[in-house]
Write a structure and sequence with these properties.
The protein is mostly beta strands. Helices cover about 5% and strands about 35% of the residues. The N and C termini lie far apart (about 40 Å).
Length: about 130
């Protein structure tokens, strides 16, 4: 199966019936940390849980991770642009899938080179190692 480069998120969910329509729920984390905005329209692809084996039978469904893995690792360096300031006054940069890197001491509009010092499932912390690039 070929996956589009325009893929914004990937998650598992149930389809529920509500009166004259069917509903899928997008996990809160996909909206809060991703590139999805409430009220916008998106193309949705549905993939069956069961997969067909080479002999024509069905195999056990593969278990999808409950949440995507962070796109950065501790020690990795990144060039980022600070897009916002967080509640604590730290710079906020976003990388793949809207993943947030918190950059203490950075201001909105700055372009900095950071070294990732801490990685969590929904954000990372980066230390400035070069002021502008």
């Amino acid at each position: 199966m070929e996956i589009s480069e325009k893929l914004l998120c990937l998650f598992s969910t149930d389809v529920s019936a509500e009166e004259d329509r069917y509903v899928i729920e997008v996990p809160r984390q996909e909206v809060e940390t991703g590139d999805i905005e409430p009220g916008d329209v998106y193309r949705v692809a549905l993939i069956s849980r069961e997969e067909t084996s080479d002999d024509g039978g069905t195999s056990q469904p593969k278990t999808a991770p409950s949440e995507p893995q962070p796109p950065v690792d501790v020690g990795e360096t990144r060039y980022v642009e600070i897009e916002d300031i967080g509640k604590q006054g730290d710079g906020i940069a976003r990388v793949e899938r809207g993943y947030v890197i918190i950059v203490p001491g950075a201001d909105v509009g700055e372009r900095v080179k950071v070294e990732v010092t801490e990685v969590k499932s929904n954000f990372a912390v980066g230390e400035i190692i070069e002021e502008t690039f």
